[in-house]
Each structure stands twice: as C-alpha cells, then as structure tokens.
C-alpha cells in the first residue's frame, strides 16, 4: 500500500506518491527519502527567489498551472490501487472525522479569520478558497515523519481530492459567492480536468500497465518538485507588488494563524471522548487538517477569482510546509504535545516560584 514502510523503515516519497523499488543496500530508498527531505527547502527557495528575482518565475503564466498541478496529481495516481480504498469501509470513524475537519471545520475557520483579521478584499476570497480545497499530498510524508498512520493519511488525501470536484465549488459558491462571482460548474469541470482525470489515469496505469508505471516512477519525484516550485513561485512573482505591500505583509499573520489553528483543531478534535482516537491517528488527523492543497487553490483562484487572490494560496504553501514538517519532526523525535505542555507548565511554575511572583 502507498506510504507503507518495512522493518528497515524504507518509505516512498509519499508526499508525491512515489514508492522506491527495493535495491541492494536500500540505496534507492535512501535516495528518495533524501529527496523528500529537500521539499521544504525547495518551497522556501522558490518563495524567496520569486520575491527577490521575480523574473525567475514570471514566465510561468497561468496556462502552465494546470499541466503543473496535473503532473503532481498523476504522481499520486500511479501509486494508488482499488484496494487502498477498502480502508474507508474497515475504518470509517477516523476517515469520517478527518473528512469533516477538512471540509467543514477548515472552511468555517477561514471565514472567521477573514473577518477577525479584516483581510483585504484583494485577498479575502482567495483566502477562503484556500481553506476549502482538498488535503495536501505533503501530509502523507509528514505523517510518516511523525510516526503516524500513513495509510489513513493517504486515504484521506485521496478521498478529499477525488470529491473536491463537487465539494470545493459548492463551498466556494456558498462562502464567497456574494463577494465575487463564482461559476461553480466551470470550477467543477476544471477540477475534474486537473485533479480527477490525472489521478484516475495514474490509477488505471498502476492497475493495468504496471511496466509503464515502473518506467516513469523514478522520474516522478523530480517532476513533482518542479511542478510544486512553479505553482508556488509564479503567483508570488506575478503579484509581488501586492505581496510586499503593507496589506500583503499583513496577510502573513492570518495565514499563520489559520494553519496553527487547523493543526491544533485537528489534534484536539480527535481527542474528544466520544471520538477518542489512538495517538498515531490523532497525529495524522492533525497534519491532514493543517495541510491542504494550496497549489490547487492557487490555480483555481487564478482562473476564477483573479491573480491577487492566488497570493494567499502561495503564502499558505510556504507556511504549511514549514509548520507541518516541523511538527512532524517534533513527534518523530519521540516527543509528545502532552509531555511538552507538562514540561512548559513546570518551567513556568519554577519561574514564578523563583521570582516570587505567585504560587503554583
């Protein structure tokens, strides 16, 4: 199954759906893991380059967005199989909780933060759209780093991606249709073309043409990284003036607040007594809730809302990768949030006693 790991902890580039073949010494597995670790740096470098040297990405017009995102989606599809979806039937509760967090909790959180932070009109619709798209492919790799439930992450991302053709246009029409004109039918067709079709093509190839998949699979990590870089750098470069303006810099605060709140909400939602999921599933739901396909949001914003509305999505990719992978590394190092909070409380108590400010 996609994202599974063996006793030697050999893992695929699950953020892009790439599964390494077992070679002598696991050298190929080590290579893909090393390549996966470069992703946050690629994201950060793309963002910096687009703002410092806009010409690096200004040539990437919106006509290239759909093929770029389609390449990322194809890399997911070539690793999927029909058996992967059996988890929906065998483990419905975590899947249902994660899906509700993805398409109910996060869109409402996006609307709340837009009003709370008074996000400028040039970015508001794009911000809400970013909160209403499918889960991020990167969340699967983050789940592995956190020693979470990678299979659950894969199925949540796949399910939210496939159903996004219906859900995202509906949410967009409901939440921002009164702010900017939204053609829900055209948006659904666009998602079908750039998301569902590449995923289904990859699934078909992996089912009926495995030799073809074996040939193209080694190239998919690089393809996906290039496509991700294009989808991040282009909207930032083309809208650089708005990004570095006072209004654009103010956008950074609500974007960070959105992701921090989403990571926290996903974690504590899974801890509710009536739900009470295990720690591995809880970590996975936190990462899946805090990370979404901002590249898809950027493409849809460019096509249907206007160029400036793609800026929140581009900022979201950078913030999401940094916070998500940092949190995953924190968990993967053997730490836990409960232990961290207890340690923080003890330190605060010691400081209060030491300074004689109050008692603990």
From TrEMBL:
Membrane topology: Multi-pass membrane protein
Keyword Transmembrane helix applies: yes
Keywords: Membrane, Transmembrane, Transmembrane helix
Source taxon at top rank: Eukaryota
Cellular-component GO terms for this entry: chloroplast envelope; membrane
Transmembrane stretches, start-end: 31-52, 64-82, 94-113, 119-138, 150-176, 188-207, 219-237, 249-270, 282-305, 311-333
Pfam families: SBF (PF01758)
Keyword hit for Transmembrane: yes
Subcellular location: Membrane; Plastid, Chloroplast envelope
Gene3D superfamilies listed in its UniProt record: 1.20.1530.20
Family: Belongs to the bile acid:sodium symporter (BASS) (TC 2.A.28) family.
Name this polypeptide is given: Sodium/metabolite cotransporter BASS3, chloroplastic
């Amino acid at each position: 199954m996609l994202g599974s790991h063996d006793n030697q902890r050999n893992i695929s580039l699950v953020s892009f759906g790439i599964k390494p073949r077992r070679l002598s010494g696991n050298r190929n597995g080590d290579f893909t893991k090393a390549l996966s670790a470069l992703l946050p740096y690629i994201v950060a470098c793309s963002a910096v380059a687009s703002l410092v040297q806009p010409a690096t990405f200004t040539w990437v017009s919106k006509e290239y967005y759909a093929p770029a995102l389609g390449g990322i989606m194809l890399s997911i599809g070539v690793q999927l199989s029909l058996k992967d979806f059996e988890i929906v039937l065998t483990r419905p509760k975590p899947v249902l909780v994660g899906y509700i967090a993805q398409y109910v909790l996060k869109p409402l959180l996006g609307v709340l933060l837009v009003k709370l932070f008074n996000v400028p009109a040039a970015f508001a619709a794009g911000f809400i759209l970013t909160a209403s798209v499918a889960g991020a492919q990167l969340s699967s790799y983050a789940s592995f780093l956190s020693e979470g439930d990678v299979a659950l992450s894969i199925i949540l991302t796949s399910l939210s991606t496939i159903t996004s053709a219906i859900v995202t246009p509906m949410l967009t029409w409901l939440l921002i249709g009164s702010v900017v004109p939204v053609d829900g039918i055209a948006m659904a067709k666009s998602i079908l073309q750039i998301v569902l079709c590449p995923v289904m093509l990859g699934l078909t190839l992996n089912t009926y043409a495995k030799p073809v998949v074996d040939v193209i699979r080694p190239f998919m990590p690089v393809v996906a990284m290039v496509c991700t870089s294009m989808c991040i750098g282009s909207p930032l470069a083309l809208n650089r003036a708005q990004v570095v303006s006072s209004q654009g810099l103010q956008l950074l605060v609500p974007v960070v607040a959105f992701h921090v709140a989403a990571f926290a909400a996903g974690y504590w939602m899974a801890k509710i007594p009536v739900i009470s999921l295990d720690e591995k599933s809880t970590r996975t739901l936190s990462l899946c809730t805090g990370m979404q396909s901002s590249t898809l949001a950027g493409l849809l914003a460019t096509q249907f809302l206007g160029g400036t509305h793609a800026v929140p999505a581009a900022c979201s990719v950078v913030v999401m990768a940094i916070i998500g992978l940092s949190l995953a590394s924190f968990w993967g190092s053997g730490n836990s949030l409960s232990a961290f909070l207890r340690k923080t409380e003890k330190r605060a108590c010691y400081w209060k006693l030491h300074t004689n400010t109050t008692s603990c």
